[in-house]
Structures are given as structure tokens and as C-alpha cells.
Design goal:
Keywords: Membrane, Transmembrane, Transmembrane helix. The radius of gyration is 50 Å and the shape is elongated. A hairpin with a 2-residue loop joins β16 and β17 (about 655-665). Strands 1-10 form a two-stranded antiparallel ribbon. Strands 2-4 form a two-stranded antiparallel sheet. It has a two-stranded antiparallel sheet with strand order 3-9. The chain starts with 16 loop residues before the first helix and ends with a helix. Among the domains are: about 15-50 and about 365-405 and about 420-470 and about 805-855, no CATH class; about 660-775, no CATH class. The chain is an alpha+beta fold.
Length: about 850
């Protein structure tokens, strides 16, 4: 530009023609070299630079979605128009129950055909005694299971599937299966929890079966008539069961002694897979129903129960044909008698309900010829201009340095001359020369236009460089196979955009969690140990029938059973819980993970305790309303039953045999001091009195010891639940006295309980009812680790968005170069017009002032 002066405004002497030609050749060669190298580098950079593009597909079908998901699983998103979808819109169920639940064996006509009016006289083990009750119970269990499953099915259908984005078919299956398993486990756990608590209370209170399967009542008609009892198979303390048989003895010759034995008898036909126990329920729960799969065994039932012969039963059509699973009825209850619960997910309906309007995904173009050619075309003009400016300058500088190296003249005078020449060249600079306009004013105007042009060009380039350098863009980055440490770093830096899809979207809780529940310390103490109970069982008959010492064994045995039941219930609940699965689409950060796990655990704790508390309340209501006859009435003493009275005045003759009427006396609670009736259980559900132990060595003085915290209720369960454990603690005043009287000199080293408020949430005076309602639980003690959760999730990649500089140094240079050509052309067109406009404006202003000045002088 400095040499471009066709009007020769420079007064210096011209260079030698040979030198000028040499410079021009060098400049041309250097220009050509720079041009080729620059074009090659820029083309190569543009060609290999990956370019990300977001593609939007408006027309989406399931096939297109599946194809896109295979290609772009990381970035594909198809937003659903409907975020919540009821399961019933796309999920159907196929539920198959155990074949017994649809067989003739649970029909009313079959059950009635097994009925004997005198079934209680056949013996506890005889199947004729228990068959009717067991098949009726089996029918009720099937009915209950069917109702629960049906209700569960309705609840599942009404449940809503949350889907923000369209999910692939595999993930839909995984999430729905996990939800249904959770529903099934919760329902069966409630049944088993209630059933086990009911069985525990039935045994504790020794509820008497009218079939004489756990207790036989016998009356002695004499001058001192009384009613006595004989326990069957030690059912008062244990829960035995044996295989059911058909007795071959005539009923009249079968003694009471034989009827009370639950033991093996040789030579009697037995019923395969059916058991007899203290109650028909206990026998049925341990039965495997094998007989119903065997045509010969079913024929045996028909032979011993004459009524089924009149039912015209087809044996081949009646027997169960499904493979025998060798599972007990109790096991079937655990699964609600379900053999198979399969679901059919109509993915097309799910897709229609989701109704995605479009899908977006990102693709990466590694080789982009169109962008490369576009870039070359855009920068070609600017590149030529820059190289035409740079190459002459470089050649001149090179030749000057070469000249300086051959001469030693580097004095101050030569530098001053160079600076003077540079200043003169700047003054003579004129980029807008016009051959037909060489007046002094025109040249001055052209030089001003040149200065304005250079200022605008320099300013524009600076603004462009600054703007391009500081501009940012949002890019999506993918991190493959991130470790936990890498994830933590990314989470700290890009928490708002970080997503790491799990390779395993369904994770069982046992992969990263365990629970170690601790029960009330009484459950691990010697007070619920067999050694201590054996000592209490060995105590002799009390002299006072109202004394609590006769029922102490039942009190502590029930406490032991409740501890065992609580432990089994908690273990079963924990086992089922940790085998459940949680659906995790993306890795949760540690805070969200802890929050979600704590919420899930709280729900599990509350539901488990609530279910058990419901069982406790229902059982109490049943006992209070029905007032069942028990073998452990508060006023009974072993063999002599005082709440059954023989009324000899009501004697009558049947079949030439003298019969007497036996009357029931409602359970009564007597006052400790006066022995008068305090209340009747049938009319007062809260009937109770203080428990006491009678000092036998002071019997003449009638000395009694009222036990602090222990009460006598209508039933053993009432007595225990409304008592406290305060006398079992070390710092209580009654520990030494109570156990001195209970042990009666026998040695039994049982350490007392020690109350530590930091370890136990139950003070010594807490009612046992409150402890039992909370499953006798102190702490759940969950243990879970985020690292194991992360490893189970196993993300194969993480994606996140971050802001980066849009252009690096090369990008800034490329952008500036690509714009120089157009910028110079635009400024060459605009600058002269701008200067002319300013000149015109100044001229107008000047003329206006002159006119005003002349008018002022006139």
C-alpha cells in the first residue's frame, strides 16, 4: 500500500530496475507459497473438524424410533404429549392360580359331603375329624387370595406410568415388572403377618377347638361333680403336627387316651400330604395336598366319606393334573396361590398414549466437504488481500536486514532517516487516488478518506477479533466409561446438565444395601429362653387359684413367641424388601441418592409396622368380641375347670344313657384383696386387675405380693399387652423379689435388663402393647453405600453440556481473514460517501454561518 502511488508524490530517488524486479519475483514466489500453504491448512482443518448437528424428526413411528434408538441412544429424546399413562391402557394380565382353587375340592358340595355331626369324637388325628374344616379353610384361602389378587390388579391398572420421554420397549418391560413385583410382595406379606400373629395368639391363649383336636373336656358325674380337661399332644405348650390317617377302630371303642395322642400309628391308612395338628388350621398350613394329585388317594376319601359317592364325581376329572410342587399351603399363601402371573405390554398402545410429536438427536459429522469448500470460498478474497500486504512487507524487511548485515552502518543518523521516511510515507499515503482529479483540495480529501478508511478498517478488525475471541457456545461432551471419581468431578462442575444413563436400569436393593434390625433387649435375654420357661413349668400347683404364678409360664412363653414372631416378620419383610428392585434411568448424585433411599426406607418401615399393628388390633378386636373359650382362663387350675359347671338338675336321658347339662361361665376377673368379682370380660373389654403372687409360707397370714407393672386380663394376650417390663430391669425395686418368688430357690442366672436411653426408645414402664405394635423394634440399622450403587448402575457414558470459546486462535484468524475481503470492499464503498457527506455537511454549516455573519454586519 505504501508503494502504491501512481502520481509519484514521493520525492525520493527511484530504486534500480534490477532491484525492483528482484523484489517483485521474490514477492510473487513468497505470495504463491503462502497462498498454497494457507489454503491447504485451512481446508484440512475444516475437513477434519467434527461438526455436531441436532436433527429433528417430525414423523415418528415405532420402527423409526427403534432404528434411531439403536444409532443414537445417548442423545435421542422424544418428548411425550401425555406424561402419565394409566397401566390399564397398555398393560394386560394373565394370572393362573394353583389348580386346587378351581377344583371340585373347594366347592360347597364337596365340603358339605365331608361333614360329620359327631366329628369331634373321631380323634385329633383322624381325617374324618378335620377334613371338613380343612377343605373349608382351603376354599377360604383360595377366595381370599383371589380377592386380593383382583384388588391388586385393579390397583395396578389404576396406577400411572410416568414417562417424560418415550422409552424403548425393554425399559418399559423392566419398569412395569418391578412395579408389579412390589405390589405382589406387599399384599402377601400383609396376609402372612396377620396369619402368624393370629396363630401365636391362638396358641398363647390356648383357644379350644370344638373338634377336640387340642383339648378334650371330660365331666365327672358324682357327688363331687367336676369338669376336667386333657391336653392333646401337649398343644398347651407346643404346636405338633402328624400325618392324617383314618382310624380303623370303632368309634365307641376309641378311648379318650388314644384320642389325645398325636403320634404315629402303624397299619392305618394315611392321607398323603394332609396333616393333623392342634387345630385344623395348623394341620392345613403344613399340608402339601399330595392326595389330590393321586386318583387312589381321592378314591380313599370317597370310600371313608360316604356322601361323596352320591355326588357322581368323576375321579379322572377331579384330581389335580398340574405337577405337584411339593409346597405347603403356607408356601402357597406366600405367593397368593399364584402359579403364574404374566403381563402383556402392548408397546404400540403405549406409543399411541405417549404420542410423541417429534424426536431430536445429535449427529457428529467427522468429514464435511461442503463446509470446507464454503470456508475456502469465504476466506479466499481476504486471504489474497492479506498476503498481498504481508509478502511485500516481508520481502522488503528481509532485503533490508540482508543489506544491514553486509554493512556496519548502524549509526543513529540512519535510524532517524528511516523514521523520517516512514512519517513522510504515511503523510503521502493515498488509497483513493483519482487520475482525473489532482487538485490540491482533492488530494487532501483523498488522504482524509484514506485515514478514515484505515481507522474504520482497524476498528472493525479489532471489534471483530474481540467479539470472535469472546463469543461462547454450548457443546455436548461425552465421557466414556466414567469412574466414580470422574463422575464426582463432573457432578461438581456440570451438575445441572450431567446425565449418566445406567447400563442396569433395574437394580435390586441387596446390591448396595443391607439392614441389621435390632429388637428390644428382652428378646435376647434369658427371660424368653427355654431354660427359664422349664423352671416355671416345673412349679407346683398354687394354693390360691387367683395367683399369677400359675400363669407366669404362659406370660413369658407368649413374650418369647412374640419376640420370635417379630424377628421372623422383620426378617421376611427385610428379605422381600432388599430383593425388590428400583428403577434408575440415570445415575443419582450422592445427595439425591441418600434422599431417595431414606424416603424409600421410611415408607418400608412405616408400612411394615403398620401392617403388624393392624394384625395386633384385629386380633384384639376378635378376642374381645367373640370371647373364645380358652384352656388358660384366669381362674382355671390345670385339670379342674371352674368356668364349666355341671348342672345335675338338668339331667336327661338319651338312648338309655344319663346325660347332664354343662354350662359355660363367662370369664371373670376377681379383686386381689377380696376375691370378689371385679368385672366380666364379656361386658367389659378392658377388664383387668393387678397380678399378685401368694406367699405360700405365709398362707395363714394371707400375705400377697402385688407385682408392679403386671396385670391380669381376660386372656393371656391381654395380660401381657397391658403389662410392662419394669420388673425385669436392674434398677427396679421388684426384680429381686419377683424372681425370688418365681424361681422358689431354683438356680437360674438371668441377668436383668439395663435401660440405656441412648440405645433404647422404650422406658421400663412402657406398655408391652406399645412395644409389640412397633414390632418390638429398636433400630433398623440400614447400611448402604453409594459406591456399590454406582457400580451396580454401571454407566457406560456420561453426557454434559458446557460453555466453551466458539473459536480458538486459528478459528479467530480464519474468521477475520474470511471477512477482510468483504469488509475492505464495503469500506471502500462507504468511506468516500461518508467523507463526502461530512464535507457537504461542513460546507452547509460554514455557508450558514457566513450568511448569518453578513446579515449581522448589514
Amino acid at each position: 500500500m505504501l508503494e502504491d502511488n501512481e502520481y509519484n508524490d514521493d520525492d525520493d530517488e527511484p530504486e534500480e530496475p534490477a532491484t525492483v524486479l528482484k523484489k517483485q519475483k521474490y514477492t510473487t514466489w513468497l505470495y504463491a507459497l503462502f497462498l498454497m500453504v494457507s489454503l491447504y491448512i485451512l481446508f484440512y482443518i475444516a475437513l477434519i473438524k467434527p461438526q455436531s448437528r441436532t436433527i429433528t424428526e417430525s414423523y415418528i413411528t415405532t420402527d423409526i424410533f427403534n432404528q434411531l434408538y439403536v444409532k443414537y441412544p445417548e442423545t435421542l429424546k422424544c418428548s411425550c404429549s401425555n406424561v402419565t399413562l394409566p397401566y390399564e391402557t397398555f398393560v394386560s394380565h394373565k394370572i393362573t392360580f394353583h389348580p386346587v382353587c378351581s377344583s371340585i375340592f373347594i366347592t360347597e358340595k364337596w365340603i358339605k359331603a365331608l361333614y360329620f355331626s359327631n366329628a369331634s369324637q373321631y380323634g385329633a388325628r383322624d381325617f374324618q375329624t378335620i377334613a371338613n374344616s380343612q377343605f373349608e379353610l382351603l376354599a377360604k384361602f383360595c377366595l381370599l387370595a383371589g380377592q386380593i389378587v383382583q384388588q391388586n390388579r385393579i390397583d395396578i391398572d389404576k396406577n400411572e406410568f410416568v414417562t417424560i420421554n418415550l422409552l424403548p420397549e425393554e425399559q418399559v418391560h423392566i419398569q412395569i415388572n418391578a412395579t408389579i413385583e412390589s405390589f405382589k410382595n406387599t399384599a402377601s406379606l400383609r396376609i402372612i403377618s396377620f396369619l402368624n400373629y393370629f396363630r401365636t395368639n391362638t396358641q398363647a391363649d390356648y383357644h379350644i377347638s370344638a373338634l377336640n383336636t387340642n383339648l378334650i373336656i371330660k365331666a365327672s358325674i358324682s357327688a363331687d361333680s367336676y369338669v376336667g380337661t386333657t391336653s392333646v399332644g401337649n398343644c398347651e405348650k407346643e404346636n405338633p403336627f402328624v400325618q392324617a390317617i383314618f382310624y380303623l377302630y370303632p368309634r365307641d371303642s376309641f378311648s379318650i387316651d388314644k384320642r389325645t395322642k398325636l403320634k404315629e400309628y402303624i397299619g392305618f391308612p394315611y392321607i398323603e400330604g394332609f396333616f393333623a395338628g392342634c387345630t385344623p388350621l395348623e394341620g392345613l398350613l403344613n399340608s402339601t395336598l399330595d392326595c389330590l394329585y393321586d386318583i387312589e388317594c381321592v378314591q380313599l376319601l370317597i370310600d371313608y366319606f360316604p356322601t361323596p359317592n352320591r355326588l357322581n364325581i368323576s375321579l379322572m376329572d377331579s384330581i389335580l393334573v398340574a405337577p405337584n410342587q411339593n409346597k405347603t399351603v403356607y408356601d402357597h399363601l406366600l405367593t397368593l396361590f399364584i402359579d403364574e402371573w404374566s403381563i402383556n405390554i402392548n408397546y404400540s398402545k403405549y406409543y399411541d398414549e405417549c404420542a410423541p410429536t417429534s424426536c431430536t438427536y445429535t449427529i457428529i459429522d467427522q468429514i464435511n466437504f461442503s463446509d470446507a469448500f464454503t470456508l475456502l470460498i469465504s476466506i479466499y478474497g481476504g486471504l489474497i488481500i492479506l498476503l498481498r500486504l504481508i509478502t511485500p512487507f516481508l520481502v522488503n524487511m528481509s532485503m533490508k536486514f540482508s543489506f544491514c548485515s553486509r554493512t556496519s552502518s548502524t549509526d543513529l543518523w540512519s535510524y532517524k532517516i528511516s523514521l523520517k521516511r516512514l512519517g513522510q510515507s504515511a503523510k503521502r499515503l493515498n488509497l483513493f487516488k483519482m487520475a482525473d482529479d489532482r487538485t490540491e483540495n482533492s488530494i487532501k480529501k483523498q488522504k482524509i478518506t484514506t485515514y478514515v478508511y484505515l481507522i474504520l478498517l482497524t476498528g472493525s478488525l479489532l471489534v471483530l477479533i474481540i467479539f470472535t475471541s469472546l463469543s461462547i457456545e454450548n457443546v455436548t461432551v461425552t465421557e466414556s466409561n466414567p469412574s466414580l471419581m470422574t463422575y464426582d468431578k463432573l457432578q461438581a462442575m456440570y451438575s445441572s446438565t450431567l446425565k449418566c444413563p445406567c447400563s442396569n436400569t433395574v437394580i435390586r436393593y441387596d446390591k448396595f444395601m443391607t439392614l441389621f434390625p435390632t429388637l428390644h433387649q428382652v428378646c435376647s435375654s434369658g427371660f424368653v429362653h427355654d431354660d427359664f420357661l422349664s423352671i416355671l413349668d416345673a412349679r407346683g400347683m398354687p394354693t390360691n387359684r387367683y395367683a399369677w404364678i400359675d400363669r407366669a409360664s404362659s406370660h413369658f412363653r407368649l413374650l418369647m413367641n412374640l419376640c420370635q414372631l417379630a424377628n421372623e416378620t422383620i426378617k421376611a419383610a427385610v428379605d422381600r424388601f432388599i430383593m425388590r428392585s428400583t428403577v434408575i434411568l440415570n445415575v443419582l448424585n450422592e445427595n439425591d441418592f441418600n434422599t431417595q433411599i431414606n424416603v424409600t426406607l421410611d415408607q418400608f418401615y412405616q408400612s411394615t409396622i403398620a401392617d403388624f399393628r393392624f394384625a395386633v388390633d384385629i386380633q384384639r378386636l376378635f378376642v374381645q368380641i367373640d370371647q373364645p373359650y380358652t384352656g388358660k382362663a384366669p381362674t382355671g387350675t390345670h385339670f379342674y375347670v371352674e368356668n364349666l359347671i355341671i348342672n345335675k338338675n338338668m339331667a336327661y336321658s338319651v338312648n338309655n344313657q344319663q346325660q347332664s347339662q354343662v354350662s359355660f361361665v363367662f370369664t371373670e376377673i376377681h379383686d386381689v384383696n377380696s376375691a370378689v368379682i371385679k368385672c366380666v370380660c364379656a361386658t367389659n373389654v378392658h377388664c383387668q386387675t393387678s397380678a399378685f403372687i401368694y406367699h405360700t409360707k405365709y398362707s395363714d397370714e394371707n400375705v400377697i405380693y402385688i407385682i408392679p407393672g403386671i396385670v391380669e386380663g381376660c386372656f393371656v394376650i391381654d395380660s401381657l399387652l397391658y403389662s410392662t417390663l419394669q420388673c425385669l430391669y436392674l434398677d427396679s425395686d421388684c426384680f429381686q423379689i419377683l424372681f425370688g418368688l418365681l424361681l422358689d430357690g431354683k438356680r437360674c442366672d438371668i441377668p436383668p435388663l439395663i435401660y440405656n436411653p441412648t440405645l433404647s426408645k422404650y422406658p421400663p414402664k412402657t406398655l408391652v402393647l406399645e412395644i409389640v405394635q412397633k414390632l418390638m423394634l429398636e433400630q433398623w440399622n440400614p447400611l448402604y453405600t453409594y459406591r456399590q450403587f454406582y457400580n451396580s448402575c454401571a454407566p457406560s457414558y456420561c453426557i454434559y453440556s458446557k460453555n466453551i470459546r466458539s473459536k480458538n486462535a486459528m478459528g479467530v484468524i480464519t474468521t477475520v481473514v474470511s471477512l477482510i475481503g468483504g469488509l475492505t470492499v464495503a469500506l471502500r464503498l462507504i468511506t468516500p460517501k461518508l467523507v463526502n457527506f461530512i464535507y457537504w455537511l461542513l460546507t452547509v454549516i460554514k455557508k450558514k454561518k457566513e450568511k448569518q455573519l453578513r446579515q449581522g454586519n448589514d
